[in-house]
Model the fold of this input.
Amino acid sequence: MKVRVLFFASVADAAGTRSLDAELGNRATVADLRRKLEKDRPRLAGRLGKCAAAVNTVVVSPARALADGDEVAFLPPVSGGAE
Amino acid sequence: MKVRVLFFASVADAAGTRSLDAELGNRATVADLRRKLEKDRPRLAGRLGKCAAAVNTVVVSPARALADGDEVAFLPPVSGGAE
Amino acid sequence: MTKVGPGRISLESAVRRVGDNGSGGIAVFLGVVRDNDRGRRVSAIEYHAYPEMARAVLDRIEKDLRKRFPLGGVVLEHRTGRLKIGEASVIVAVSAPHRAEAFEACREGIERIKAELPVWKKEFGPGGVLWKEEQDLRRAKRRTVGASR
Amino acid sequence: MTKVGPGRISLESAVRRVGDNGSGGIAVFLGVVRDNDRGRRVSAIEYHAYPEMARAVLDRIEKDLRKRFPLGGVVLEHRTGRLKIGEASVIVAVSAPHRAEAFEACREGIERIKAELPVWKKEFGPGGVLWKEEQDLRRAKRRTVGASR
Done:
Protein backbone atom coordinates (compact mmCIF):
# COMPACT_ATOMS: atom_id res chain seq x y z
CA MET A 1 0.00 0.00 0.00
CA LYS A 2 0.95 3.63 -0.41
CA VAL A 3 0.51 6.43 2.16
CA ARG A 4 1.08 10.17 1.93
CA VAL A 5 3.53 11.50 4.55
CA LEU A 6 3.61 15.13 5.78
CA PHE A 7 6.44 16.82 7.68
CA PHE A 8 6.40 20.20 9.41
CA ALA A 9 8.75 22.85 10.78
CA SER A 10 12.21 21.58 11.86
CA VAL A 11 11.30 18.03 10.84
CA ALA A 12 10.47 19.16 7.29
CA ASP A 13 13.87 20.90 7.19
CA ALA A 14 15.58 17.69 8.32
CA ALA A 15 13.59 15.59 5.83
CA GLY A 16 14.43 18.02 3.05
CA THR A 17 10.78 17.96 2.00
CA ARG A 18 7.33 18.73 3.36
CA SER A 19 5.70 15.62 1.90
CA LEU A 20 6.44 12.31 0.20
CA ASP A 21 4.74 9.06 -0.71
CA ALA A 22 5.82 5.87 1.08
CA GLU A 23 5.31 2.24 0.01
CA LEU A 24 4.54 -0.09 2.91
CA GLY A 25 3.74 -3.76 3.36
CA ASN A 26 0.21 -4.79 4.29
CA ARG A 27 -0.68 -4.34 7.96
CA ALA A 28 2.09 -1.79 8.47
CA THR A 29 1.62 0.49 11.49
CA VAL A 30 2.60 4.09 12.19
CA ALA A 31 5.65 2.70 14.06
CA ASP A 32 6.67 0.71 10.97
CA LEU A 33 6.39 3.81 8.81
CA ARG A 34 8.50 5.77 11.31
CA ARG A 35 11.26 3.13 11.27
CA LYS A 36 11.27 3.02 7.47
CA LEU A 37 11.50 6.81 7.18
CA GLU A 38 14.34 7.03 9.69
CA LYS A 39 16.24 4.34 7.79
CA ASP A 40 15.70 6.02 4.40
CA ARG A 41 16.56 9.51 5.71
CA PRO A 42 19.21 9.37 8.44
CA ARG A 43 18.72 13.06 9.33
CA LEU A 44 15.25 12.15 10.63
CA ALA A 45 16.74 9.72 13.15
CA GLY A 46 15.68 10.68 16.70
CA ARG A 47 13.32 13.34 15.40
CA LEU A 48 10.22 11.41 14.46
CA GLY A 49 10.14 9.80 17.91
CA LYS A 50 9.56 13.26 19.41
CA CYS A 51 6.60 13.86 17.09
CA ALA A 52 2.97 12.98 17.58
CA ALA A 53 1.45 11.21 14.57
CA ALA A 54 -1.89 12.06 12.99
CA VAL A 55 -3.67 9.87 10.45
CA ASN A 56 -6.13 11.79 8.30
CA THR A 57 -5.88 14.74 10.78
CA VAL A 58 -6.63 12.64 13.88
CA VAL A 59 -3.85 11.96 16.43
CA VAL A 60 -3.21 8.21 16.78
CA SER A 61 -0.94 5.84 18.72
CA PRO A 62 2.18 4.27 17.10
CA ALA A 63 0.39 0.90 16.99
CA ARG A 64 -2.29 2.25 14.66
CA ALA A 65 -2.55 0.15 11.47
CA LEU A 66 -2.39 2.11 8.23
CA ALA A 67 -4.54 1.76 5.13
CA ASP A 68 -3.80 2.51 1.50
CA GLY A 69 -4.27 6.22 0.78
CA ASP A 70 -3.90 7.38 4.38
CA GLU A 71 -2.37 10.80 5.05
CA VAL A 72 0.14 10.49 7.91
CA ALA A 73 1.46 13.67 9.50
CA PHE A 74 4.39 13.84 11.94
CA LEU A 75 3.77 16.72 14.30
CA PRO A 76 6.62 18.34 16.27
CA PRO A 77 5.60 19.89 19.62
CA VAL A 78 3.22 22.70 18.69
CA SER A 79 3.85 26.38 19.37
CA GLY A 80 0.69 28.23 18.36
CA GLY A 81 -0.30 31.56 19.84
CA ALA A 82 2.25 34.25 20.46
CA GLU A 83 3.62 34.04 23.98
CA MET B 1 -20.26 74.74 59.32
CA LYS B 2 -21.67 74.04 55.90
CA VAL B 3 -21.20 70.88 53.82
CA ARG B 4 -22.23 70.00 50.28
CA VAL B 5 -24.41 66.85 50.05
CA LEU B 6 -24.75 64.69 46.92
CA PHE B 7 -27.45 62.09 46.21
CA PHE B 8 -27.52 59.50 43.41
CA ALA B 9 -29.93 57.20 41.60
CA SER B 10 -33.01 56.12 43.63
CA VAL B 11 -31.85 58.17 46.60
CA ALA B 12 -31.71 61.34 44.49
CA ASP B 13 -35.28 60.58 43.33
CA ALA B 14 -36.39 60.17 46.96
CA ALA B 15 -34.58 63.35 48.03
CA GLY B 16 -36.12 65.23 45.12
CA THR B 17 -32.69 66.68 44.35
CA ARG B 18 -29.16 65.57 43.44
CA SER B 19 -27.44 68.01 45.77
CA LEU B 20 -28.03 70.46 48.62
CA ASP B 21 -26.11 72.39 51.24
CA ALA B 22 -26.52 71.44 54.90
CA GLU B 23 -25.73 73.49 58.02
CA LEU B 24 -24.27 71.46 60.87
CA GLY B 25 -22.95 72.12 64.38
CA ASN B 26 -19.22 71.90 65.05
CA ARG B 27 -17.86 68.37 65.42
CA ALA B 28 -20.80 66.89 63.53
CA THR B 29 -20.16 63.43 62.05
CA VAL B 30 -21.45 61.68 58.95
CA ALA B 31 -23.99 59.90 61.19
CA ASP B 32 -25.22 63.29 62.50
CA LEU B 33 -25.66 64.53 58.93
CA ARG B 34 -27.57 61.38 58.00
CA ARG B 35 -29.98 61.82 60.94
CA LYS B 36 -30.53 65.49 60.10
CA LEU B 37 -31.26 64.69 56.42
CA GLU B 38 -33.69 61.89 57.30
CA LYS B 39 -35.52 64.23 59.69
CA ASP B 40 -35.71 67.09 57.14
CA ARG B 41 -36.78 64.77 54.26
CA PRO B 42 -38.95 61.91 55.52
CA ARG B 43 -38.78 60.11 52.13
CA LEU B 44 -35.08 59.52 52.79
CA ALA B 45 -35.84 57.59 55.99
CA GLY B 46 -34.41 54.06 55.81
CA ARG B 47 -32.59 54.86 52.56
CA LEU B 48 -29.47 56.66 53.72
CA GLY B 49 -28.67 53.80 56.10
CA LYS B 50 -28.29 51.50 53.07
CA CYS B 51 -25.81 53.87 51.45
CA ALA B 52 -22.08 54.08 51.88
CA ALA B 53 -20.85 57.60 52.57
CA ALA B 54 -17.91 59.26 50.84
CA VAL B 55 -16.27 62.49 51.99
CA ASN B 56 -14.39 64.29 49.23
CA THR B 57 -14.63 61.09 47.09
CA VAL B 58 -13.18 58.78 49.76
CA VAL B 59 -15.43 56.23 51.49
CA VAL B 60 -15.57 56.83 55.26
CA SER B 61 -17.21 55.36 58.36
CA PRO B 62 -20.31 56.99 59.94
CA ALA B 63 -18.16 58.21 62.86
CA ARG B 64 -16.06 60.38 60.56
CA ALA B 65 -16.03 64.03 61.72
CA LEU B 66 -16.92 66.57 59.05
CA ALA B 67 -15.24 69.87 58.26
CA ASP B 68 -16.61 73.05 56.72
CA GLY B 69 -16.70 72.77 52.91
CA ASP B 70 -16.66 68.97 52.78
CA GLU B 71 -18.48 67.22 49.93
CA VAL B 72 -20.47 64.32 51.35
CA ALA B 73 -21.91 61.76 48.91
CA PHE B 74 -24.43 59.07 49.84
CA LEU B 75 -23.80 56.08 47.58
CA PRO B 76 -26.50 53.44 46.97
CA PRO B 77 -25.18 49.93 46.20
CA VAL B 78 -23.28 50.32 42.90
CA SER B 79 -24.23 48.60 39.68
CA GLY B 80 -21.50 49.42 37.18
CA GLY B 81 -20.70 47.18 34.22
CA ALA B 82 -23.44 45.55 32.20
CA GLU B 83 -24.22 42.11 33.49
CA MET C 1 -5.44 55.08 31.08
CA THR C 2 -8.88 55.60 32.59
CA LYS C 3 -12.05 57.39 31.49
CA VAL C 4 -15.60 57.96 32.73
CA GLY C 5 -18.00 59.81 30.48
CA PRO C 6 -20.61 59.77 27.74
CA GLY C 7 -18.26 59.09 24.78
CA ARG C 8 -18.63 55.77 22.93
CA ILE C 9 -16.18 53.04 23.95
CA SER C 10 -13.81 52.12 21.12
CA LEU C 11 -12.42 48.61 21.33
CA GLU C 12 -9.94 49.20 18.52
CA SER C 13 -8.58 52.30 20.21
CA ALA C 14 -8.35 50.60 23.62
CA VAL C 15 -6.38 47.69 22.19
CA ARG C 16 -4.09 50.03 20.26
CA ARG C 17 -3.40 51.95 23.45
CA VAL C 18 -2.51 48.86 25.55
CA GLY C 19 -0.28 47.44 22.80
CA ASP C 20 3.38 47.23 23.72
CA ASN C 21 6.28 45.55 21.92
CA GLY C 22 7.20 43.45 24.94
CA SER C 23 3.68 42.15 25.50
CA GLY C 24 2.54 38.84 24.03
CA GLY C 25 -0.97 38.74 25.44
CA ILE C 26 -3.84 41.21 25.43
CA ALA C 27 -6.94 40.37 27.45
CA VAL C 28 -10.09 42.42 27.04
CA PHE C 29 -13.42 42.37 28.80
CA LEU C 30 -16.30 44.28 27.30
CA GLY C 31 -19.56 44.69 29.20
CA VAL C 32 -22.50 45.21 26.86
CA VAL C 33 -26.16 46.05 27.47
CA ARG C 34 -28.27 42.89 27.34
CA ASP C 35 -31.91 42.63 26.32
CA ASN C 36 -32.88 41.16 29.69
CA ASP C 37 -31.96 41.24 33.36
CA ARG C 38 -32.73 37.92 35.01
CA GLY C 39 -35.81 37.49 32.86
CA ARG C 40 -37.05 41.09 32.92
CA ARG C 41 -37.03 42.58 29.40
CA VAL C 42 -34.78 45.61 28.93
CA SER C 43 -34.86 48.08 26.02
CA ALA C 44 -32.17 50.55 27.16
CA ILE C 45 -30.04 51.45 30.17
CA GLU C 46 -29.00 54.80 31.59
CA TYR C 47 -25.75 54.92 33.55
CA HIS C 48 -25.31 57.69 36.13
CA ALA C 49 -21.94 58.27 37.77
CA TYR C 50 -20.41 60.32 40.52
CA PRO C 51 -17.77 61.37 38.01
CA GLU C 52 -15.03 62.84 40.24
CA MET C 53 -15.06 59.80 42.51
CA ALA C 54 -15.40 57.33 39.62
CA ARG C 55 -12.24 58.75 38.03
CA ALA C 56 -10.37 58.47 41.33
CA VAL C 57 -11.55 54.86 41.78
CA LEU C 58 -10.47 53.84 38.25
CA ASP C 59 -7.07 55.47 38.76
CA ARG C 60 -6.65 53.59 42.03
CA ILE C 61 -7.60 50.28 40.37
CA GLU C 62 -5.09 50.87 37.56
CA LYS C 63 -2.38 51.66 40.10
CA ASP C 64 -3.13 48.51 42.10
CA LEU C 65 -3.20 46.30 38.99
CA ARG C 66 0.17 47.63 37.88
CA LYS C 67 1.56 46.87 41.34
CA ARG C 68 0.29 43.29 41.27
CA PHE C 69 0.98 42.33 37.63
CA PRO C 70 3.79 43.10 35.13
CA LEU C 71 1.49 44.98 32.77
CA GLY C 72 2.42 46.80 29.59
CA GLY C 73 -0.74 48.87 29.09
CA VAL C 74 -4.01 49.25 31.00
CA VAL C 75 -7.27 50.81 29.77
CA LEU C 76 -10.25 51.12 32.13
CA GLU C 77 -13.32 52.98 30.85
CA HIS C 78 -16.95 53.26 31.89
CA ARG C 79 -19.52 54.99 29.74
CA THR C 80 -22.35 57.12 31.14
CA GLY C 81 -25.68 58.22 29.72
CA ARG C 82 -28.31 56.27 27.80
CA LEU C 83 -27.16 53.09 25.99
CA LYS C 84 -29.00 50.79 23.59
CA ILE C 85 -28.93 46.98 23.58
CA GLY C 86 -25.55 45.72 22.40
CA GLU C 87 -23.66 48.92 23.22
CA ALA C 88 -20.59 48.65 25.44
CA SER C 89 -20.83 50.19 28.90
CA VAL C 90 -17.46 49.17 30.28
CA ILE C 91 -14.09 47.99 28.97
CA VAL C 92 -11.05 46.55 30.69
CA ALA C 93 -8.05 45.95 28.42
CA VAL C 94 -4.57 44.97 29.58
CA SER C 95 -1.40 43.72 27.95
CA ALA C 96 1.21 41.55 29.64
CA PRO C 97 4.21 39.44 28.64
CA HIS C 98 2.24 36.22 29.15
CA ARG C 99 -1.38 35.25 28.98
CA ALA C 100 -1.89 34.10 32.58
CA GLU C 101 -1.08 37.57 33.92
CA ALA C 102 -3.20 39.27 31.26
CA PHE C 103 -6.27 37.16 32.14
CA GLU C 104 -5.86 37.57 35.89
CA ALA C 105 -5.37 41.34 35.72
CA CYS C 106 -8.34 41.76 33.36
CA ARG C 107 -10.60 39.71 35.62
CA GLU C 108 -9.49 41.56 38.73
CA GLY C 109 -10.06 44.89 36.98
CA ILE C 110 -13.68 44.18 36.08
CA GLU C 111 -14.46 42.63 39.48
CA ARG C 112 -13.20 45.73 41.25
CA ILE C 113 -15.11 48.03 38.89
CA LYS C 114 -18.32 46.12 39.59
CA ALA C 115 -17.75 46.32 43.35
CA GLU C 116 -16.34 49.82 43.75
CA LEU C 117 -17.18 52.17 40.90
CA PRO C 118 -19.82 54.76 41.87
CA VAL C 119 -22.05 54.17 38.85
CA TRP C 120 -25.75 53.32 38.95
CA LYS C 121 -28.01 52.04 36.25
CA LYS C 122 -31.61 52.74 35.38
CA GLU C 123 -33.26 50.05 33.30
CA PHE C 124 -35.93 50.90 30.73
CA GLY C 125 -38.34 48.19 29.61
CA PRO C 126 -41.97 47.30 28.98
CA GLY C 127 -42.34 46.87 32.76
CA GLY C 128 -41.37 50.51 33.34
CA VAL C 129 -38.27 52.31 34.54
CA LEU C 130 -36.36 51.03 37.53
CA TRP C 131 -33.10 51.80 39.30
CA LYS C 132 -31.12 48.60 39.52
CA GLU C 133 -30.42 48.92 43.25
CA GLU C 134 -34.17 49.20 43.94
CA GLN C 135 -34.89 46.02 42.01
CA ASP C 136 -32.20 44.25 43.97
CA LEU C 137 -33.76 45.40 47.25
CA ARG C 138 -37.21 44.17 46.17
CA ARG C 139 -35.76 40.84 45.13
CA ALA C 140 -33.94 40.48 48.45
CA LYS C 141 -37.19 41.25 50.33
CA ARG C 142 -39.10 38.69 48.30
CA ARG C 143 -36.46 36.09 49.11
CA THR C 144 -36.61 36.98 52.81
CA VAL C 145 -40.41 36.70 52.87
CA GLY C 146 -40.24 33.38 51.04
CA ALA C 147 -37.61 32.03 53.41
CA SER C 148 -39.53 32.95 56.58
CA ARG C 149 -42.64 31.00 55.62
CA MET D 1 -16.68 30.58 13.83
CA THR D 2 -13.15 29.40 13.20
CA LYS D 3 -10.41 30.32 10.74
CA VAL D 4 -6.80 29.39 9.98
CA GLY D 5 -4.99 31.31 7.26
CA PRO D 6 -2.87 34.25 6.20
CA GLY D 7 -5.54 36.98 6.44
CA ARG D 8 -5.08 39.71 9.08
CA ILE D 9 -7.00 39.20 12.32
CA SER D 10 -9.66 41.89 12.82
CA LEU D 11 -10.58 42.47 16.44
CA GLU D 12 -13.52 44.71 15.52
CA SER D 13 -14.95 42.06 13.22
CA ALA D 14 -14.46 39.27 15.76
CA VAL D 15 -16.28 41.20 18.46
CA ARG D 16 -19.10 42.14 16.07
CA ARG D 17 -19.51 38.48 15.17
CA VAL D 18 -19.70 37.23 18.79
CA GLY D 19 -22.14 39.98 19.82
CA ASP D 20 -25.57 38.74 20.80
CA ASN D 21 -28.50 40.59 22.38
CA GLY D 22 -28.70 38.17 25.29
CA SER D 23 -25.00 38.42 26.14
CA GLY D 24 -23.74 40.85 28.75
CA GLY D 25 -20.07 39.94 28.67
CA ILE D 26 -17.54 39.60 25.87
CA ALA D 27 -14.08 38.27 26.72
CA VAL D 28 -11.29 38.48 24.18
CA PHE D 29 -7.74 37.19 24.17
CA LEU D 30 -5.35 38.43 21.52
CA GLY D 31 -1.91 36.89 21.12
CA VAL D 32 0.56 39.31 19.58
CA VAL D 33 4.13 38.93 18.37
CA ARG D 34 6.56 40.17 21.03
CA ASP D 35 10.02 41.64 20.47
CA ASN D 36 11.63 38.94 22.58
CA ASP D 37 11.30 35.31 23.61
CA ARG D 38 12.72 34.74 27.08
CA GLY D 39 15.46 37.25 26.49
CA ARG D 40 16.24 36.37 22.85
CA ARG D 41 15.50 39.33 20.54
CA VAL D 42 12.87 38.68 17.87
CA SER D 43 12.22 40.76 14.73
CA ALA D 44 9.47 38.69 13.08
CA ILE D 45 7.73 35.32 13.31
CA GLU D 46 6.54 32.94 10.65
CA TYR D 47 3.65 30.64 11.52
CA HIS D 48 3.31 27.37 9.62
CA ALA D 49 0.17 25.26 10.01
CA TYR D 50 -1.15 21.88 8.99
CA PRO D 51 -4.25 23.68 7.74
CA GLU D 52 -6.77 20.83 7.33
CA MET D 53 -6.05 19.51 10.81
CA ALA D 54 -5.86 22.97 12.37
CA ARG D 55 -9.37 23.73 11.08
CA ALA D 56 -10.67 20.43 12.48
CA VAL D 57 -9.03 21.15 15.87
CA LEU D 58 -10.52 24.67 16.10
CA ASP D 59 -13.97 23.33 15.19
CA ARG D 60 -13.65 20.68 17.90
CA ILE D 61 -12.59 23.30 20.48
CA GLU D 62 -15.57 25.53 19.57
CA LYS D 63 -17.93 22.56 19.90
CA ASP D 64 -16.51 21.61 23.29
CA LEU D 65 -16.66 25.18 24.59
CA ARG D 66 -20.31 25.48 23.56
CA LYS D 67 -21.05 22.24 25.37
CA ARG D 68 -19.41 23.43 28.59
CA PHE D 69 -20.52 27.08 28.66
CA PRO D 70 -23.75 28.95 27.72
CA LEU D 71 -22.06 30.95 24.97
CA GLY D 72 -23.68 33.37 22.56
CA GLY D 73 -20.90 33.63 19.97
CA VAL D 74 -17.44 32.09 19.61
CA VAL D 75 -14.61 33.22 17.30
CA LEU D 76 -11.35 31.23 17.15
CA GLU D 77 -8.76 32.31 14.59
CA HIS D 78 -5.07 31.65 14.03
CA ARG D 79 -3.07 33.53 11.44
CA THR D 80 -0.33 31.93 9.35
CA GLY D 81 2.61 33.38 7.41
CA ARG D 82 5.10 36.05 8.39
CA LEU D 83 4.08 38.51 11.12
CA LYS D 84 5.77 41.66 12.42
CA ILE D 85 6.16 42.70 16.07
CA GLY D 86 2.80 43.78 17.49
CA GLU D 87 0.70 41.90 14.92
CA ALA D 88 -1.94 39.50 16.22
CA SER D 89 -1.35 35.80 15.60
CA VAL D 90 -4.35 34.38 17.45
CA ILE D 91 -7.71 35.57 18.75
CA VAL D 92 -10.27 33.96 21.03
CA ALA D 93 -13.51 35.94 21.48
CA VAL D 94 -16.62 34.69 23.25
CA SER D 95 -19.84 36.22 24.49
CA ALA D 96 -21.89 34.90 27.40
CA PRO D 97 -24.73 36.11 29.61
CA HIS D 98 -22.35 36.71 32.53
CA ARG D 99 -18.70 37.57 32.85
CA ALA D 100 -17.52 34.51 34.80
CA GLU D 101 -18.53 32.19 31.93
CA ALA D 102 -17.04 34.51 29.33
CA PHE D 103 -13.67 34.59 31.09
CA GLU D 104 -13.54 30.86 31.72
CA ALA D 105 -14.47 29.92 28.16
CA CYS D 106 -11.97 32.41 26.69
CA ARG D 107 -9.17 31.08 28.88
CA GLU D 108 -9.99 27.48 28.09
CA GLY D 109 -10.09 28.30 24.38
CA ILE D 110 -6.59 29.78 24.27
CA GLU D 111 -5.13 27.05 26.51
CA ARG D 112 -6.43 24.37 24.18
CA ILE D 113 -5.19 26.20 21.09
CA LYS D 114 -1.71 26.43 22.60
CA ALA D 115 -1.71 22.74 23.47
CA GLU D 116 -3.44 21.22 20.45
CA LEU D 117 -3.32 23.40 17.35
CA PRO D 118 -0.87 22.07 14.73
CA VAL D 119 0.93 25.36 14.17
CA TRP D 120 4.67 25.93 14.43
CA LYS D 121 6.63 29.13 14.64
CA LYS D 122 9.94 30.17 13.19
CA GLU D 123 11.55 33.10 14.96
CA PHE D 124 13.68 35.63 13.10
CA GLY D 125 16.18 37.72 15.03
CA PRO D 126 19.77 39.01 15.17
CA GLY D 127 20.75 35.55 16.49
CA GLY D 128 19.47 33.88 13.30
CA VAL D 129 16.39 31.89 12.39
CA LEU D 130 15.11 29.16 14.66
CA TRP D 131 12.12 26.88 14.85
CA LYS D 132 10.57 27.30 18.29
CA GLU D 133 10.43 23.59 19.05
CA GLU D 134 14.18 23.29 18.38
CA GLN D 135 14.97 26.10 20.80
CA ASP D 136 12.84 24.39 23.41
CA LEU D 137 14.75 21.14 22.91
CA ARG D 138 18.11 22.91 23.27
CA ARG D 139 16.94 24.67 26.39
CA ALA D 140 15.75 21.39 27.90
CA LYS D 141 19.13 19.78 27.12
CA ARG D 142 21.01 22.67 28.72
CA ARG D 143 18.88 22.29 31.84
CA THR D 144 19.56 18.53 31.96
CA VAL D 145 23.32 19.04 31.59
CA GLY D 146 23.27 21.69 34.30
CA ALA D 147 21.30 19.46 36.65
CA SER D 148 23.58 16.42 36.26
CA ARG D 149 26.71 18.27 37.39
About this structure: Chain C has a mean pLDDT of 89. The first helix of chain C runs from residue 11 to 18. Chain C has four helices and ten strands.
